[in-house]
Amino acid sequence: MTTTVASAVATPAATATATADTTGLLVAAVRAGRTAEVVALLDGMTDAQRRAAFPELKAVRQELRTARWSADSRRAHPALHAAGAACQTGAAAVANWLAAVDMRWSQASPAVLLHVLGDRDRGWLADVAHRLAQRPAASNVSYELMAGLVRLSGCPVPTTEAYVQGWLTHVGGDWQRGGTVCDRLRRDPHLAELVAALFRTEGVGTQLGWLSGDGPESWTSALARLTGEGVLDRRSVVDACVARLLRGGAPAELRVFLRLLKDLALTREEERRRAADWTALASDAMPTVASHAQSVLGALALAGELSPRRLAQVTEAVLFRTEKKLVRAQLVLLGKVLTKNRSAAGELLPAAARAFGHEDSDAQERALKLVERHVGKVTAAEVREELAGAAEQLIPALRARAVRTLGATPPDSVPVAHEEVLPPPPQPVRLAPAPAAAVEVAEEISALLASGSDVAVFERALDGLVRHAHLDRDALLEALEPVVARRWWAEGEPRHGHRSDDFFARRHELFDDARAFDLLLATLYGKVRTDTLHRVVHDGLTNSGCAHNSLARPFEARVWEVAHRLRTDPQPFLLATPTWGTGLLEPGELVDRLDAYRRAGARVSAVDFGQALLRVRRDNRPAALAAAERAAALGTEEGERLARRLLTERAAPSVTRRAADTRILVELGEVPDLRAEEFPAALRLLGRPVNPDSDHWYCSHWSGAMRPHWFALLPERPELVAARLLRDVSEAAVHDQQGTAAAVLPHLADADGEAGEAVHLSVAYGLGARHAEDRLAAVDALLVLAARGRLEAGRLGADLGQLVRRGAVKPARLADAVRTAAATGANATVWAVLRQVLPVLLADLSTGGATTSSARGLGELLAVAAECAERTGERGSLPHLSGVADRRGTSRLVTQARRLREALAAAPAAA
């Protein structure tokens, strides 16, 4: 009896010892990355032992987080991934562990995970599977793991985005063996559910496209074949495909579903049953899809299976679209139907007359010809009156013809006065005061690091950091703790394998706002050595050798100087913080700051004060003179320098236009007032000459994140910045780069200084940009400059003419841009530009000097010019226009030249 009791008492202790030993062995195997040994240990552990081991595994995970890029961490993570999943009991906890961010790129294999989890209850496995499937697709959860859990649990298959995209990659991936895509799909037990989910899941169309392309081995061919075999329900697949096209989306995605619809080869009955869907697609879908729907409806109409009323409804919707190809095809279809069915004229001709108001004059003329040809088939007087009334929307030349053929009302002989519509000039935005509390500074810096900033946000956060570092450094450091904890340099072993000081010492460049604040915060937390800061500030920054060096170095020099002062002698506040969001600093405000420095006995930083002098406003002469008097009265060296700056007139550099390949660039001479020795060396770079022949235009400043700050260096002198960025902007037109014009042009338009050669050439390149968003940015800049009275339309037009001749700007792109500008109501502005562009191009055409690229799209430019002339009532002649208008034929170039000549000759301005 005694032995039994003793054994019973000893058992818990022995069990605890065994559990501790097992846990130790498991943790050691995890640290060593011995996954096979970990699996063997887990197989021999009880549920209680597994649960007891989890706290130790959690501690290992926390330890590895502090050095996540180390070799030890990469070695241990797969084993830790499997062990941690096996040692937890809650489905939610296991799913969170499996999909954790810190485990994402170093996971255990799906086979290992299924082995260690496979002995759980089927309902529990189903719960884990569906929780994993609910994760975003970017979580990188293994499809093989999710599918294996579904197979083991026997649960319904998830149809979430992550699961469907994983299934697509699994079935269509190149590593798959054992037959074609069609064969692999045929063997899938969940085929029907997952195919139905394809049509509901965003983004899968693009994935389908690049996974297998087109042809007999494509996904679309496989789905069509399985539908034809009866493996998939045909009506469900067709309905889902049409519904997906109706929902819209990215063009690349919709093209894949359109390909599937064509591969399904709908019968006439299936097409007729979905007539309402084709009508909706023809009205609103992307052009490729709308064209297919239009062709289906056309075939039904010509076969007599679409009523004239329904065809009229379709026509009204299609003729409202801007795509010329669709409009032309619809008018051709109406002509064919009217030839076969005379009685349909009463319903179809009023629908065709909707094109009388189309923005394309060719569409108007085609519609008028159609109505003139078939108007004799109309018997109802009210329909004829409707057609005559609709003719009032025609351009003047066609309206005059409609007076004779349709009995339309002649236009008023008194011209209508044109009222130019331009956007209101942008109002300057004053910077808010620096944050009053350290917590606010931390919040603003956190937001800036997460999503970037503009000049106003950056300068306000920078000034706030400086003020609170001077006021209460400890409170600032405490407030910044949550922000700093997420920065790479705060980790025990920083990224790239170097200490943070080494990183900043070797890489002085500050390519974006985040890099700038990383330097400042790392300095505050002692991660950058004082001698490193001193060396950079004293010796200067290295020359990047690129054309942007003179813009990048002044900004970087100021940030490095601020960092040095944070460590050695914190400033009470910054002198160069602008008053306005453009970077402009009011002179009276700068005098007040210098006075505060004088009274506090604070030392002025050279670069910060130099930047303040570059930003100080001088165009308001009364304010500048008053501030100069106050500055001189301070009795300090900085006050005297400010007074001289305010009283000195700006010296304009010499400007020379230079041709470089197809481009026209600007060469600037030295700017004497910016080369003065009183400026620090980094700021004197802004006065150096600009050489457009530099070989170093392509560099590490490609992101453009710092461009707003470059414009804020010289807010009253945008020409000096634009000249240095002109080649970058020209890339949008010459080499079809995206984003360069859109990033630069708004700052040019908002700048407070005069718009000269470089600014106008930048706008010209933007108007000829390849991408629509860049052209739209150029249109905005054009209109803002015009609204502010700073646009020289003649200069811009002459620049565009030369750029089109040289092939840098394509006429079709330019036509799209100026048509957009004219549509806002700026017809006179657009005409003033085009009247300088067109003679250059027409002269080349008449003498045979036009290239194919410069001639293509000229008809579109003439169409925009004609519309502007008609709306503004412009009169006169245009050199070389008659030579083109007198040519034979009815090409768009010739017809639009005739239209413009008629508008300039006598036609009254349209309303």
Automatic annotation (TrEMBL):
Start and end residues of each DUF7825 domain: 708-846
Residue ranges annotated for the DUF7824 domain, each copy included: 454-673
Lineage top rank: taxon: Bacteria
Protein name: Secreted protein
